[in-house]
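HUMAN:
Sorry, I am quite new to this. Are you able to go through these amino acid letters and fold codes? The numbers rather puzzle me.
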Amino acid sequence: MANAPTKKAEQATHQAIDQTRNFAEKAADKTKDAAGTIAERAKDAASTIADKARDATSSLTHNVTEGASHLASTASHKADDAVAATGSGMQSLASSLRQNTPDEGMLGSASNQVADSLERGGKYLQEQGLSGMADDLSEMVKRYPIGAMLVGVGIGYILARATSRS
């Protein structure tokens, strides 16, 4: 009979060991599940942060691009307005020249030619603006490349002389 309590004790010990082992296995499984969940949540959070950073960068880039475009457009409009005002001033000067110079004789003929040139130039500036002038200039350079090069060299020489004396 002494054997019976020992067997019971052994059974109880084995049962306790089995329960402990089951408990440890369940704890390990739950720890793995929790670690997996934490890793998933960390990955989702990192993805969300990356998406928000990408969106913020995209938004910032869009705002900067839009601002630069607006600034360039405003500058372009102001330059076109200045060119149109110059053209209007040239036409006004042509009108004043016609009113204040004689109509006949050599002086009258010369002043009429100058007034006509001023008026045509003023109309051209008002109608074409900077973009039209740039198009016409590029056409002229394509049509007369050697002459354009010589004019460029001459202007460069004059600018160099003017700045070196200062």
